[in-house]
Each structure stands twice: as C-alpha cells, then as structure tokens.
Write a structure and sequence with these properties.
alpha/beta; Peroxisomal Thiolase, Chain A, domain 1; 5-stranded mixed beta sheet; 13 strands
Length: about 325
C-alpha cells in the first residue's frame, strides 16, 4: 500500500570545527605516517572539536544552516531526530538541547544510536513519521565529537575519525507513488548483534561507569562492510525498480576509501558518481553522510531531480541504505 505522503528534502547544512588535525601531526604522537594513513584509508586530515564545544553545538550549527537553505523558520519543525554516538550527556537526548537552542517548544526530539549507520537509521525514522502524516517538518541530524572516545595511543583507530555535523530538513508532501517524485523513496536498515565485538567502545554507564574508547577488528569489519553494503544498495534499488545505471550520485558513509571503492565496483557504479569527503573529514560516524551530501549540494553536483543513493555500516554491526529523489 502506498503511503499517503512523501518526505521531501528541502535543505541541507553542515558544520565542521575550526581545528584541523593533519596526518603529519598524528605521526608525531603515534607510530604512523601520512603515507601509511593515506594508502590504507584515503584520509589526510580531520576536524577536532574545541574544548567546550559539544555535539549539540555542532548539531545546532548544521541545523541552522539546513533551515536557512530550506528557507524555513525553526518553529515550523515538529520533529528532530539526531543520530549520534557521542551525546552531550547520558541523558536527556542531545536532540532536546538542539530543540531548546532553536527555540522550539513543541513536537518531539530524540536521539538515535546506530553508530556510523545512525544517519540512515534516523532518516528512516523521520521518513516514516512524515509519510504516515504524524509530523509535518523534520530535522534529521548526524553529529559527532568522535575524537572524545578515541585512544590516542592506538594507531589502528585514532587516525580514522573526526568530528562534525550535518543536517537535512524534510517536509511532507502528498505522494503519487512514483520513483520520479521528489523525496525519500525508501530506507532499509539491518543489524547483526552477533558481530558486536568487531567494533565497539570498551565502556558505558551500565558496564564500567566510564565512557570508554573505540576498539576495532579492522580486517573483519572491512570484510563484512564490502559485502553488506553492496547487498543493501542492491536491495534499495530493487525496491524501487531501479538499477545502478539510474543512480546520479552515490553518497556512502566515509569510513575508508578502499571500502567505498570496492563497494562501488561491486555495484558497477562509475567513480565519477561517488561523493567523497573522507580525505578532508575522515570518518565522522553518523555525521559523514550529511556532511558529504552538503558538500555535493554546495559545489553543484547534486541537483534537484537527481537520484541519490546513501549507504552506511557501523558498530552493532549495523548497516543500511536509502534512495532519495533530490
């Protein structure tokens, strides 16, 4: 049955902290080098939040810019879904801080935790609320201060991540059920908790009463990523009777350039159709997809009517995809 409404993207925005940390600087802290990092990941630099700069601050700036791009006042927003692994506090939701800072006193605001897949999960949640008519205007945000949970002595993880935020504004429109109508065509999310220990943080309020640090079994994560990401993109295209040839832009989670290239090759996607920001941003977890989207919109690559495919995989293991007619 066709849903009565479709969630249409009205604007996007992003924010990166001012501080830039280069590979050369990292090489002075741990046993690594610029060449080693670039060869294995494609990363050259990343942004790091300043002291006193929280995830909510990054999210707020991205949200303001997305609203400005959409030409909408904040009081039109009645739903905020914020994907983050690095909330300001254990509770309440960081989304409520953004809600308050925007001067919004109505609707709902909550966080989604699916690590690097978080933005796709958040987009799916917001899409469902809008397409069923339960809300009218949503802010979907991915925001992270991921550098706060890194072990800076572990070269296998500390070189990979950075901080940042990105946001989309969605509004609901009457749906006609076609793949040519603007909006979110479909979202697809998955997880396999049996793979929990491949990528995790070794702390938490319930287990250790500490924040903990990121731990990862890189080769295993890589192996699962290429397979599962290609599968979920095929799933998303098939759900809309589309093929890889129909895709205008592929916006993957910016985890590792080798993963992105391998996934695109499996799918038969041309390299020129891939939006890449990993060189400048590193892996910003839930923020990476909206940051890449905003980069593609700002430089004129992503245009109205384009077919945009998103995919991500993160801890859990969790993964997912989405198809959006821009």
């Amino acid at each position: 049955m066709t849903a009565p409404y479709r969630a249409v993207v009205r604007g996007c925005g992003s924010y990166l902290p001012a501080r830039v940390l280069t590979n050369a600087e990292l090489a002075r802290k741990v046993d690594t080098s610029d060449a080693w990092i670039v060869e294995r990941t494609g990363i050259r630099r990343r942004h790091v939040a300043a002291e006193g700069e929280f995830t909510s601050h990054l999210a707020l700036e991205a949200a303001k810019r997305a609203l400005a791009a959409a030409g909408l006042a904040a009081d039109k927003v009645d739903l905020i879904v914020l994907a983050t692994t690095t909330p300001d506090s254990t509770f309440p939701a960081t989304a409520t801080r953004v809600q308050a800072a925007l001067g919004i006193g109505h609707g709902a605001a909550f966080d989604i935790q699916a690590v690097c897949s978080g933005f796709v999960y958040a987009l799916g949640v917001a899409d469902n609320f809008l397409k069923l008519g339960q809300h009218e205007t949503a802010l979907v945000i991915g925001a992270e201060t991921f550098t706060r949970i890194l072990d800076w002595t572990d070269r296998g993880t500390c070189v990979l991540f950075g901080d940042g935020a990105g946001a989309l504004v969605l509004t609901r429109e009457k749906a006609d059920g076609s793949a040519t109508q603007r909006g979110v065509l479909s979202t697809h999310i998955h997880s396999d908790g049996r793979l929990y220990d491949l990528l995790y943080v070794d702390g938490g309020p319930s287990s250790t009463m500490t924040t903990g640090h990121v731990r990862m079994h890189g080769p295993e994560v890589y192996k699962h990523a290429v397979t599962k990401l290609a599968e979920t993109v095929r799933e998303a295209l098939a759900a809309n009777n589309l093929t890889a040839a129909d895709v205008d832009w592929f916006v993957p989670h910016q985890a590792n350039k080798r993963i992105i290239d391998s996934t695109a090759k499996k799918l038969g996607l041309e390299p020129g159709k891939i939006i890449l920001t990993i060189e400048e941003h590193a892996n910003t977890s839930a923020a990476s997809i909206p940051l890449a989207i905003d980069a593609g919109v700002k430089d004129g690559r992503i245009k109205q009517g384009d077919l945009v495919v998103l995919e991500a995989m993160g801890g859990g293991l969790s993964w997912g995809s989405a198809v959006v007619r821009w």
